[in-house]
Amino acid sequence: CADSAMYHAKESGRNNYQFFTTELNVRAQHRYALETNLRRALTENEFLVYYQPKISLSTSRIVGAEALMRWQMPDVGLVPPNEFIPISEEIGLILPLGRWILRQACLQTQLWRQQYSPDLVISVNISPKQFQDPGLPKYIEQVLQEVGLPPTALQLEITEGLLMGDIDLLLPVFDAIKKLGISISLDDFGTGFSSLSYLQRFPIDNLKIDRSFIREIPDNQDSVILTHAIIAMANALGMSVTAEGVEKADQMFFLADSGCQEMQGFYFSQPLPVDKFEKLLSDNVR
Ligand code: C2E
Ligand code: MG
Ligand code: MG
Ligand code: MG
Questions:
Q1: Does 133 sit in the ligand 1 pocket, CB within 6 Å?
Q2: pTM of the prediction?
Q3: Above 0.90 for ipTM, yes or no?
């Protein structure tokens, strides 16, 4: 990477200037190719939505799903979001891309609600750039109307980093979204540089405990205590709790005993393409 190139260049004197610039050029070219491919991918319909079920810990039923983006890149295969979402944010492509997945996920969910599961809730990840787009609430309202999905069937997942932004700009967006009747979940809770006062300042409906806490349960006593405390605090403040990254039965039992409402993770299912998720839903009905 550029940092290590810089480091090497400094270490061994000015002779490495040539190496340094070559390295940067290769990176710039790679980056440019990726950006070009990404822009093309949107017009060529190369993006897909995967769905990961959320399970009620009291009924063991599927109560919702998280929409997770995938890029089906020709000749390469399925590219995970961590490899293209950050760049899409930087180049502004996240705005059209984010609108696309929001609409797609709402359409699909409305179909599933009619066919299998009338109370299914869809969660969509919203990046900070998207949330700061003043046109977002209006866009969501239009999509819900077009698709016929009630607002209570939609949840937006935001991250702690967003809440460190300008509160005067953020609050009106929160207000507009809450007025629509949509719920808001705080994703990856406990990993950002967040402060608990955010929970007082912003209308958050659900805390999603980060996988890093769940992973250490039940072996690590500190994770057990922290998870207990997060659930107790959230519930006392009137927020529901979802645990992400549940991979073992032990973790599920612990969460159910601790008053956690929902879980999501490989223990129940990985994120799935439409047809496979549908199979899960149809089994869920019986
Ligand atoms: P996230 O929102 O925290 O999503 C959960 C991630 O954890 C997903 O990775 C999911 O596959 C993974 N996961 C779920 N259960 C388990 C488990 O039991 N064990 C392990 N090891 N992993 C589990 P994925 O799909 O690769 O997404 C990564 C991140 O990319 C997401 O994290 C989210 O921040 C971002 N992302 C995905 N789709 C979108 C999107 O449409 N818009 C935006 N803005 N970001 C997105
Ligand atoms: Mg999420
Ligand atoms: Mg998460
Ligand atoms: Mg996470």
A1: no
A2: 0.91
A3: yes
